[in-house]
Design a protein that fits this description.
mainly beta; Beta-galactosidase, Chain A, domain 5; nine-stranded antiparallel β-sheet; 23 strands; about 5% helix; globular
């Protein structure tokens, strides 16, 4: 494989022999798989890795990676066709690589419809993920309707954050926010958050809000998460009981907490032909 931007973006062979983009500059570094446009890692200069990646994750075409930032699209959650949509199972192409004047580096990956995607979801589209690496990690997922008919989508940037111990981790910023529990937790279906979110057992909640700033604090560092273009934030940690049934997580469950910028339910995005919508998430270590 060849250099794209010498000293800043390189193509390489990643885990499982899958092609990966390695992005490095004076401000930070990241790795992005072409498989699923999956951000595997992000690390600001002089700081510890921000994202969690399972040591047991499969790395193979046609399989989803556990950890990092999976792209869930054009649906979110269980579905007979596949979990969380087909975008994370597909091979994307590098559309652009740019070194910005402020020292940051941006790579943009693209996915378009083909016979295989239309067999699952019969619509014409172009999907782009722009990954901007600096002291912060900026993700922008843009869906464009390239067909002649309107269609709708749901999805998420399913971000796994590395934490010292989920049981001692909190998320501030959701106080007073209505949420829906996932059925697997066996908790009340609808509730309102009181204080910071804590992880004493499995937490799998969909918080109905669009523009709150969330602060993840694991007692070692604080991570600020902001977003736009979505109607909800999903907060998840499997807890010991559920994680034991998940081979990619198992006893590793205390090492991560998910905060996902999500579009789901009645907050779906409706796109007319020629129109586009962008879901954004920005991650910063304070």
């Amino acid at each position: 494989m060849s250099d794209i931007i010498p000293s800043h973006v390189r193509e390489a062979v990643g885990p499982g022999g899958l092609p990966v983009l390695r992005v490095t500059n004076a401000l930070g570094q990241a790795e992005v798989l072409l498989h699923g446009a999956h951000v595997l890692s992000f690390q600001p200069a002089g700081a510890a890795p921000v994202l969690w990646l399972s040591a047991h994750s499969p790395f193979a075409g046609g399989k989803a990676v556990r950890g990092g930032v999976p792209v869930c699209w054009p649906w979110f959650g269980p579905d007979p066709r596949c979990m969380h949509g087909f975008a994370r199972y597909r091979s994307w192409k590098l559309a652009e690589a740019a070194q910005l004047a402020d020292g940051r580096t941006r790579v943009t990956l693209a996915l378009t419809d083909d016979d295989a995607t239309r067999a699952l979801w019969p619509h014409a589209f172009r999907l782009e993920l722009a990954v901007t690496v600096g002291r912060e990690l900026e993700l922008a997922l843009t869906a464009t309707n390239t067909g002649d008919e309107p269609w709708s989508w749901r999805g998420a940037l399913h971000t796994y954050f590395a934490v010292a111990d989920a049981r001692r981790t909190t998320i501030a910023g959701l106080d007073g926010c209505a949420y829906l529990d996932a059925p697997s937790t066996g908790v009340v279906a609808n509730a309102v958050q009181s204080g910071a979110v804590q992880f004493k057992a499995e937490v799998n909640r969909r918080y109905f809000e669009s523009d709150r700033v969330l602060i993840l604090n694991d007692g070692v560092r604080r991570i600020r998460v902001t977003k736009s273009g979505s109607n909800a934030s999903v907060v998840w940690n499997a807890g010991a009981e559920s994680a034991a049934k998940m081979p990619e997580i198992g006893d590793l469950w205390p090492g991560y907490v998910c905060i996902e910028a999500a579009v789901f339910g009645e907050g779906r995005v409706d796109l007319l032909p020629g129109c586009a919508w962008t879901l954004r998430q920005t991650i910063a270590v304070e």
